[in-house]
Design a protein that fits this description.
CATH superfamily of the largest domain in chain B: Succinyl-CoA synthetase domains
Radius of gyration of chain B: 19 Å
Number of helices of chain A: 13
Low-confidence stretches of chain B: 244-254
Distance between the termini of chain B: 25 Å
Strand order of the largest sheet of chain B: 3-4-2-1-5-6-7
Number of helices of chain B: 9
Structural class of chain B: alpha/beta
Shape of chain B: globular
Low-confidence stretches of chain A: none
Number of strands of chain B: 16
Number of strands of chain A: 19
Oligomer: heterodimer
Strand content of chain B: 15-25%
Number of domains of chain B: 2
Radius of gyration of chain A: 26 Å
Order of helices and strands of chain B: EHEEEHEHEHEEEEHEHEHEEEHEH
CATH architecture of the largest domain in chain B: 3-Layer(aba) Sandwich
């Protein structure tokens, strides 16, 4: 779960991280009032959406005085902001953060995240460059890193050494070290997956200030953090995805016309590849998790039956674990019965309880084409999707 | 021979008294695995499925001589359960639990440093040595004893590949699910290494996905040690939509085709034969064997 910038800053302030004076505003008038309260002449008005690259898309405005804040907020609020990270639909701006502009003597990038290969928390830092987020997205930023344990520094002096590698010395090094300790404590206590400060500003007075902040909490640890649950911005989460997750299903909408039901992420991905190779276009990715029961599966299948673009349903299931084939077949039957939509269905179901599942399937009187292997099934679904049944 | 497990494996089941633990412990017993005890804090001294239940892993290990443990403990306590098994010096720990907090896995990795334990998972279907030992939750109906080692990140796709191999007359020495989580125990490279060293294994199937760097690490390992046995690799996810988590937290990528192509290129450069698509893994391995025999 990603928090909004203003929420992340509120949280980080509690860990001793300095952030610019700021107020949230829902209207242009509120933005002007916020600017007056802050009292600074130079200000930023920043669109609060859960996507990066806002500045390049015009979502972060440098303004002067309350009048400037009012104008910028008026332009941003209610608008859909399209950045390189939002997708073509963009995100509606419902709030802006009005903040004092902070003069920078120097700018840094600083992030803490999980390094899967090291199995540790790793800090990544460098002097700020405009292309830094793109370089990080490539996964090879070439920036100095520091591996941290859950308890903090793995060896005394690691953080001091990290500062030296960054060419940060003197009082700034002390402050930088304290900042990393504060962020590390926040990371562990909040069960974060990522904390990113970009840019981190050093003022002429030597103070380090987080001018922007991104905070992502590990969804798997949500049960430990009822306090962050209320910060979740449901309006910005893909509603379809969210609903699916509540039913133990990972679902992603795509733009094709073949609805896909598959169990397991690997088999789901393989099914997408097979459909493409057969010349078809998936309407969605689906991964039914092993914890899904037949009613959950029915919900997932129902999402496809509700999709007017989907012309054919492709079911590719290898029953195993706690989820045998008959559970999936029951889910299919419930979904078709509820929906009433007659959609051609190409089925390939094998694995645990396969024979029983096929026997049940025969009872349900569903429109179905049963295939022996997944390539046949993908090819058949692709043909039907093009009107060549 | 098998890797990780064998006929002498004596298995503890952490969380055996829960629903999943009960169901799968029973299935493992039916498969022929020597399940010797369960561990559930608060239920020590009881009996479940005709097996003794202990309070702690250390106690159970002492009393039964167990040398492997499977973790069915729910996510909130799964990390602690893994650490308990590591501290009890259990040689093999297989964690099936899904959705373990990632920081708990960082704690587990810290506990693994310098330990005697090999961890498989979490979010793994487990380890299967067909007809000898099953530690996990995978389908077994089409698994056959034979010369191929299989390692993957995904359960249902492994079952699919196992079925293809068996249909092609190629049984499996051992199948391993390393799990779909970003921070986990044993990786692709270590599994390939174990298969290269195992005299019974004559070929290896590696089933990769978009996201993460395990496939690259395996490719690097094979390049460094040399291709001791034929390796067939499948990497799925080329058609995945961009910038989405595809179920596995590990499989997160911005540019799916580039990521998949990079992994395929690295594995091919290392000498692996690439299966062109998921339905062709059995046939590709058959060809690789045929070429070697010719």
């Amino acid at each position: 779960m990603q928090l909004h910038e203003f929420q992340a800053k509120d949280v980080l302030r509690r860990y001793g991280i300095a952030v610019p004076p700021g107020r949230i505003a829902l209207t242009a008038d509120e933005a002007a009032a916020a600017a007056r309260e802050i009292g600074a002449e130079a200000l930023f008005v920043k669109a609060q959406i859960l996507a990066g690259s806002r500045a390049a898309a015009g979502g972060v405005r440098a303004v002067r005085l309350p009048s400037g804040a009012r104008t910028a907020a008026g332009e941003l609020l209610g608008r859909k902001l399209v950045t390189t990270q939002t997708g073509p639909g963009g995100r509606a701006v419902k709030r802006v953060l009005v903040e004092a502009a902070v003069g920078a003597a120097e700018e840094f990038y600083l992030a803490l995240r999980i390094d899967p290969a090291a199995g540790a928390i790793v800090a990544i830092a460098g002097h700020h460059r405009p292309d830094i987020e793109d370089r990080l997205a490539d996964g090879t930023p070439g920036l100095p890193t520091l591996v941290l344990g859950v308890a903090g520094e793995r060896r005394p002096g690691d953080i001091a050494d990290f500062c030296r590698r960054l060419d940060i010395a003197g009082e700034t090094a002390d402050r930088f070290g304290a900042l990393i300790r504060g962020l590390h404590r926040a990371f562990v206590e909040l069960d974060a997956a990522l904390i990113e400060i970009n840019p981190l500003i050093r003022t002429e007075a030597g103070e380090l200030i987080a001018a922007d902040a991104k905070l992502v909490i590990d969804d798997n640890a949500a049960f430990r953090h009822p306090e962050t649950a209320e910060l979740r911005s449901e309006e910005e989460v893909d509603q379809i995805q969210l609903q699916a997750q509540r039913h133990q299903i990972n679902y992603v909408s795509m733009d094709g016309n073949i609805g896909i039901v598959a169990n397991g992420a690997g088999l789901g991905l393989a099914t997408l590849d097979l459909v493409r190779a057969a010349g078809g276009a998936p309407a969605n990715f689906m991964d039914i998790r092993t914890t899904a029961k037949s009613l959950d599966i029915a919900h997932g299948v129902g999402m496809i039956l509700d999709n007017p673009r989907a012309k054919v349903l492709l079911v590719n299931v290898y029953g195993g674990g706690m989820q045998a084939c008959d559970t999936v077949v029951d889910g299919l039957a419930i979904a078709f019965r509820r929906s009433g939509r007659v959609m051609p269905m190409v089925l390939r179901i094998t694995g645990n309880n396969e024979a029983f599942a096929h026997a049940r399937l025969a009872n349900f009187n569903l429109p179905k084409i049963v295939c022996a292997d997944m390539w046949q099934a993908a090819s058949r679904a692709a043909a039907i999707s093009k009107g060549r049944a | 021979m098998t890797i990780l497990v064998d006929r002498d494996t004596r298995l503890l089941c952490q969380g055996m008294t829960g629903w999943a633990g009960t169901y799968h412990a029973d299935r493992m017993v039916q498969y022929g695995t020597a399940v010797v005890a369960g561990v559930t804090p608060g239920k020590g001294g009881q009996s479940h499925l005709g097996l003794p239940v202990f309070e702690t892993v250390a106690e159970a290990k002492r009393a039964t001589g167990a040398n492997a443990s499977i973790v069915f403990v729910p996510p909130a306590n799964a990390g602690r359960a893994m650490i308990e098994a590591i501290e009890a010096e259990m040689p093999l720990v297989v964690a099936v639990t899904e959705r373990v907090p990632v920081l708990d896995m960082v704690r587990v990795r810290e506990a693994l440093v310098g330990s005697r334990t090999r961890l498989v998972g979490p979010n793994s279907q487990g380890v299967l040595a067909p007809e000898i030992c099953k530690i996990g939750v995978m389908a077994t109906d089409r698994a056959r004893r034979g010369p191929i080692g299989v390692v993957s990140r995904s359960a249902s796709l492994t079952s699919e590949v196992v079925a293809q191999l068996s249909a092609a007359g190629l049984g499996q020495s051992t199948t391993i699910g390393i799990g779909g989580d970003p921070v986990h125990g044993i990786g692709f490279a270590e599994c390939v290494s174990l298969f290269f060293d195992d005299p019974e294994t004559q070929g290896v199937v590696l089933i990769g996905e978009i996201g993460g760097s395990e496939e690259h690490e395996a490719a690097r390992f094979i390049r460094e040690t040399g291709l001791k046995k034929p390796v067939v690799a499948l990497v799925v996810g080329r058609a995945a939509p961009p910038e989405r988590r595809m179920g596995h937290a590990g499989a997160l990528t911005a540019q799916a085709p580039d990521d998949v192509d990079g992994k395929i290129a690295a594995l091919r450069d290392a000498g692996a034969v690439i299966a062109p698509n998921a339905h062709l893994v059995g046939a590709t391995m058959s060809d690789a064997f045929g070429r070697r025999a010719a």
